[in-house]
Design a protein that fits this description.
The complex is a heterodimer.
Chain A: H1 35-50, E1 59-64, H2 68-73, E2 77-80, H3 81-90, H4 95-104, H5 112-131, E3 153-157, H6 162-174, E4 181-183, H7 202-226, H8 232-255, H9 265-270, H10 272-277, H11 282-301, E5 311-316, H12 324-333, E6 336-341, H13 342-345, H14 360-369, H15 377-391, E7 395-401, H16 405-408, H17 411-422, E8 425-431, H18 441-465
Helix pairs in contact in A: 3-5, 4-5, 5-6, 7-14, 8-11, 15-17
Chain B: H1 6-17, H2 19-30, E1 34-37, H3 45-48, E2 53-56, H4 77-87, E3 96-99, H5 104-116, E4 122-124, H6 136-155, H7 161-186, H8 194-206, H9 209-221, E5 234-240, H10 248-256, E6 259-264, H11 270-273, H12 283-297, H13 310-321, E7 325-331, H14 335-350, E8 355-360, H15 367-389
Parallel strand pairs in B: 1-2, 1-3, 3-4, 5-6, 5-7, 7-8
Helix pairs in contact in B: 1-2, 1-8, 4-5, 6-12, 7-8, 7-9, 8-9, 8-10, 13-14
The chains are: A alpha/beta, B alpha/beta.
The structure holds iron/sulfur cluster (2 copies).
């Protein structure tokens, strides 16, 4: 999975309240300003991608894991399918792609990331055929959906979701099976054995080695495509930047254990694109240094991310890209600081200690396998409880994502576990990753209010006992 | 229309309608273990070789109640039914579960089963789903061995080369007999309801395989004179519907609209019986070959393979059976099928082969509206037929 929440040079992300937010309610959210720099970096990245062919650069389309440090070392331009779908949804520009997908035959109940991206593939392919110059030539060039440069080849490395792998098998067919493709298979870490747990047990020790071998094959495949020997030093260098950026990101996240929190889940959402697919370089490190600095400053100056923080909530589920700005304000309106989440905190190079720049592929393989949808229940429960303890969580918001079953899979049971093990209340609301039609505001409003009431009751009871 | 000998057919039908009752009775009778597997690629031979009864867990016809709070409504009916069966005690007969498939919805259901009935071990050994990589075969062979260890742990019995070879032999024989029915139907020498054929396949997934084979043989022996379907009926191929069978009522409804089903690639149909396990060589490696071969024989949308296409298979098989159109049956929310469907539609469309998509749901059948859709579709094929008959 991945995303991009940042601004393009031409179209801007809608982070303003939507019509559904109570108009008279003041905005009580206080987002980090340092993440704006990420917006510019992401916009530049995409602008660069859109012109990759003009510069004669080879283009790889990929989905799933963050293979970009490898692509970067190979001198490729990389287009992450989910990231582009997320970008379109966050900019409210997903409709042309989704319409093209629907016309091609993709059902609305299908993963909206995939059908948005497949719609882009249809438009791109159409444009390629029309223009024969490799630049998407949809009549209306303003349509961002049609701006992806056509690929030279595909790579798929999707953890934890069968749809993720099948999606690229279809993209490959949309392009007439004419372009090379490589699949990296990432087995799920099911974790049912007695020794199994997060980053431990025999299953954990052996599976990354299998994936590491495939990554070596991937590099051979890339060498075949580019007709150049792979630059291993460049990969190590890229991974050293990723490692440092990741350390800073994790340190900054951990500072948010403070109450009131200096930054929220929504700031981490805005920082996903940089960590997940931007070029690994000093700018990336500087970005996360700036984020961390701002958080430290806020702690020093006692500036909170939500005015009058009264509840600390954990967000489980994939992001709802159509509603990013709305949700930010909505939770804050109820004095809720969404402090952490599965999508942000258990993804995206979240274990920098695993990265060994002298053996970069192993740490990469390990990270691909700890994607938050690639664990069985036992590990999911362990991670959820750990985060709840770390961040002093009072309640959990489960985003029941209509077309992303991978993220929705364990939610009902996770809710039971949190209540049983820690007495943590939760609620579930309906929405989707990239299709606004599935969002049901009433389920958010009523669920959130009910959860906050039960937290109040719980607190009152505890106060009486004391 | 041919009739299948009712006395022989009855126990097959009972087992197909109530697999849990069959497994309970088998357990009482033999004192053996019952191991549940999930579709669509578990090699039942591995369990059979331990002396336990391998049963592919079926979708229950029961209305989903408790399962609603375990998996959301936007999951396919099979996985929602599994969650419900776990919560309502319908899976009590099973001593353990085994799974090699990776469909994201199925994994969700597996998580539910593990949590709701934690005393029943659920062993998951993921078979690689990218079928044509240089390392695919080795990866499957390794996983077959891993699953062997799990099955041995659950049953307390060692699977030897000899026991597995013997199991492979009986399953191959069973598939061969089932294919005989399908071949007779495809070549126009057997005309029986599609729902009856479904009973034959479904019962083979849940019954003791030797008992099933004996009944199949008896059915074949007692077949009345072979007869073909009347010419005026429109010949159709049924495609899709993974994991769970389409409702028999839907198959009957199709046939009521002047249709004869001549072939299919349904899981509860040709897909399941398409491929034998190679009988020579290392039997464990043979199971890996079987897994890889069956996606070549009848390609599946849940696997990815660059050099194999479901749509090409379909076009070839239509030429073989003389089917005049395709009805794609899609369990609502089945993502692999939703993803692949446009390619099927495109290919059939390019060849002017009539195609119809019908979505199915656990909760029931909108019979009248489906009937109208099918009738319109049949009419379209008839018109196409008459056009072809007109002199150029
Ligand atoms: S369903 Fe979710 S995890 Fe799967 S491909 Fe789509 S967005 Fe990714
Ligand atoms: S393949 Fe389709 S029917 Fe089978 S479990 Fe997955 S979604 Fe359900």
């Amino acid at each position: 999975m991945s995303l991009d929440t940042n601004q393009s040079t031409k179209q801007s992300l809608d982070l303003s309240p939507t019509r559904l937010v109570t108009p008279e309610a003041p905005d009580k959210s206080n987002r980090l300003s340092s993440t704006r720099m990420g917006g510019k970096m992401v916009a530049d990245y995409w602008d660069n991608i859109f012109t990759a062919r003009e510069r004669g650069q080879s283009v790889v389309w990929y989905n799933g894991s963050a293979l970009n440090p490898i692509f970067q070392a190979a001198g490729l331009a990389w287009c992450h399918g989910e990231a582009f779908s997320a970008r379109l949804a966050a900019m409210h520009m997903e409709e042309p792609a989704q319409a093209a997908g629907a016309e091609y035959g993709y059902n609305a109940e299908l993963c909206s990331y995939s059908r948005t991206h497949l719609g882009c593939a249809v438009l791109t392919q159409k444009g390629t055929l029309e223009k024969q110059d490799g630049i998407v030539g949809m009549a209306d060039q303003e349509e961002l959906a049609a701006k992806l440069p056509s690929p030279d080849f595909f790579v798929n490395a999707y953890a934890g979701c069968s749809t993720g792998q099948q999606w690229d098998a279809m993209t490959y067919r949309v392009f007439g099976k004419e372009l090379p493709m490589m699949n990296v298979s990432l087995p799920m870490i099911f974790g049912t054995k007695p020794d199994a747990g997060y980053l431990r047990g025999k299953e954990w020790e052996t599976t990354p080695l299998y994936v590491e071998k495939q990554l070596h094959k991937l590099i051979e495949f890339i060498e075949d495509q580019t007709k150049r020997p792979f630059d291993w030093d460049a990969l190590s260098e890229n991974m050293s930047y990723i490692k440092r950026a990741s350390e800073l990101r994790i340190e900054a996240m951990q500072l948010c254990a403070a109450a009131p929190t200096p930054a929220t889940y929504w700031d981490w959402v805005a920082s996903i694109a940089p960590i997940n697919f931007l070029p690994a370089n000093q700018m990336l490190v500087d970005y996360f240094q700036a984020v961390k600095d701002e958080i430290e400053q806020r702690i020093r100056e006692k500036v909170s991310a939500v005015q009058n923080e009264r509840y600390r909530v954990y967000f489980d589920g994939i992001m709802n890209w159509n509603k990013l700005g709305y949700l930010t304000r909505k939770f804050a309106e109820h004095d809720v600081a969404v402090v952490a989440g599965r999508y942000t905190h258990d993804s995206f190079w979240q274990e920098p200690d695993l990265i060994d720049v002298d053996r970069p592929l192993l740490g990469m393989a390990q990270h691909y396998l700890i994607c938050p949808i690639n664990h069985g229940m036992k590990i999911m429960e362990e991670l959820l409880l750990k985060r709840c303890d770390e961040y002093g969580i009072d309640g959990i918001a489960f985003h029941s994502t209509r077309t992303c079953r991978a993220m929705t899979n364990p939610q009902q049971m996770l809710a039971r576990t949190a209540e049983r093990e820690r007495g943590i209340k939760s609620f579930s609301f309906e929405g989707d990753v990239a299709d606004a039609a599935f969002y049901k505001d009433e389920t958010l409003e009523s669920g959130l209010v009910a959860m906050l009431e039960s937290i109040d009751q719980q607190r009152a009871k505890t106060a009486q006992l004391v | 229309m041919n009739t299948l000998d009712p006395t022989t057919f009855a126990p097959l039908e009972r087992a197909a309608q109530d697999p849990v009752a069959y497994a309970t009775e088998w357990k009482e009778r033999t004192g053996g273990l019952v191991i549940g597997s999930f579709p669509m690629n578990f090699p039942s031979e591995l369990v059979h070789a331990t002396g336990a009864l391998p049963v592919i867990v079926q979708e229950s016809r029961t209305t989903i109640t408790e399962g609603r709070s375990l998996l959301p409504e936007f999951y396919c009916s099979y996985t929602r039914s599994l969650a419900d069966q776990a919560a309502t005690g319908e899976l009590e007969v099973f001593d353990a579960f085994v799974l090699v498939d990776h469909c994201v919805q199925l994994l969700g259901a597996a998580d539910v089963i593990q949590r709701v009935i934690p005393d029943k071990p659920l062993h998951f050994t993921q078979f690689i789903s990218s079928m044509d990589d240089a390392w695919s075969r080795g990866a499957v062979e390794e996983k077959v061995q891993a699953m062997r260890a799990e099955v041995e742990e659950s049953t307390g019995v060692t699977v030897t080369d000899e026991s597995l070879t013997a199991s492979i032999r009986v399953f191959n024989e069973n598939r061969r007999l089932l294919r005989e029915f399908f071949d007779l139907r495809r070549t126009g020498r057997l005309h029986i309801p599609a729902s009856a054929l479904q009973v034959l396949v479904k019962s083979s997934m849940v019954m003791d395989i030797t008992e099933h084979t004996a009944l199949l043989q008896q059915l074949l022996d007692r077949l009345d004179t072979l007869s073909s379907a009347p010419e005026h009926l429109v010949r159709l191929h049924l495609s899709g519907h993974f994991c769970a069978p389409p409702r028999p009522e839907l198959l009957n409804l199709l046939e009521e609209c002047d249709v004869v089903i001549v072939n299919d690639d349904l899981y509860h149909g040709s897909r399941y019986i398409s491929t034998d396990v190679p009988k020579d060589g290392d039997p464990f490696a043979a199971l890996a070959s079987w897994y890889l071969d069956r996606n070549v024989n009848v390609p599946c949308a849940t696997r990815v393979q660059l050099d194999v296409d479901w749509q090409s298979y379909l076009v070839d098989t239509l030429a073989d059976s003389g089917a005049e159109g395709v009805v794609t049956l899609q369990a609502k929310f089945c993502e692999p099928l939703m993803l692949y469907y446009p390619e099927l539609r495109r290919t059939l469309g390019e060849r002017d082969i009539p195609e119809l998509l019908i979505e199915t749901e656990h909760e029931g059948l909108a019979a009248e509206s489906i009937r109208t859709t099918i009738e319109t579709f049949v009419e379209r094929i008839r018109r196409q037929r008459s056009k072809q008959l007109l002199p150029a």
